[in-house]
Amino acid sequence: MTKPIAQATGRRKTSVARVRLLDGTGQFTLNGKSLDDFFPEPTHRLRIVEPLKLTELEGRYDISATLEGGGTTGQSDALRLGIARALVEIDPDLRPALKKAGLLRRDDRKVERKKYGLRKARRAPQFTKR
User: Fold this and answer.
1) What per-residue confidence (pLDDT) applies to 3?
2) CA-CA distance, 34 to 128, in Å (whole number)?
3) Could you tell me whether strands 61-68 and 6-12 are parallel, antiparallel, or unpaired per DSSP bridges?
4) Of 70, 60, 79, nearest in space to 18 by CA
5) In whole angstroms, what is the distance from residue 57 CA to residue 59 CA?
6) 97 — phi, psi (to 5°)?
7) Positive or negative: CA dihedral 71, 77, 82, 83
8) Which backbone phi and psi does 25 adopt, to 5 degrees?
9) Which of 45, 87, 63, 43 is nearest to 2 (CA)?
């Protein structure tokens, strides 16, 4: 395997994506699978390639990533952030465009924990007056 040009990490909810960009033809290798096999949902694939389309670098780099934790949406958003961060590492001039599009911002929303005395995080038991 060739030496990576850039490495970056993306996170979302409980998902972590460790991304490596290599010179190549636009191939994705995600946990040993292709992009279509790992993310069958087309909306996830569109969100993942967004940083590459925005910077017009589609098909220029091979992307190898290790994804763990969370579900498909969390993993796809973590991968998207990792790709954007790796592109900035390669060329700092891409930062303003990616930042303006909101691709360098980590979505820090997480599931709120359940509290005692409640059914869910905020849902209280039904109240009966009489």
Assistant:
1) 74
2) 55
3) unpaired
4) 79
5) 6
6) -65, -45
7) positive
8) -120, 10
9) 63
Band of the pLDDT at 1, cuts 50, 70, 90?
Answer: low
Tokens of 99: 């930042």
Q: Tell me the two tokens of residue 39.
A: 């993310």
State the pLDDT at residue 2. 67
Residue-wise DSSP of the chain:
-PPPSEEEEEEETTEEEEEEEEESSS-EEETTB-HHHH--SHHHHHHHHHHHHHTT-TTTEEEEEEEESS-HHHHHHHHHHHHHHHHHHH-GGGHHHHHHTTTT------PPPPPTTSSSSS-PPPP---
Give one word for 10, left, alpha or beta, with left for phi > 0 and alpha for psi -120 to 50: beta
- At 81-114, the pLDDT tens digits run 999 999 999 999 999 999 999 999 999 999 999 9
Question: Which residues, at least 6 apart from 75, have a Cβ–Cβ distance to it below 8 Å?
Answer: 12, 15, 17, 67, 69
Amino acid identity, residue 95? R
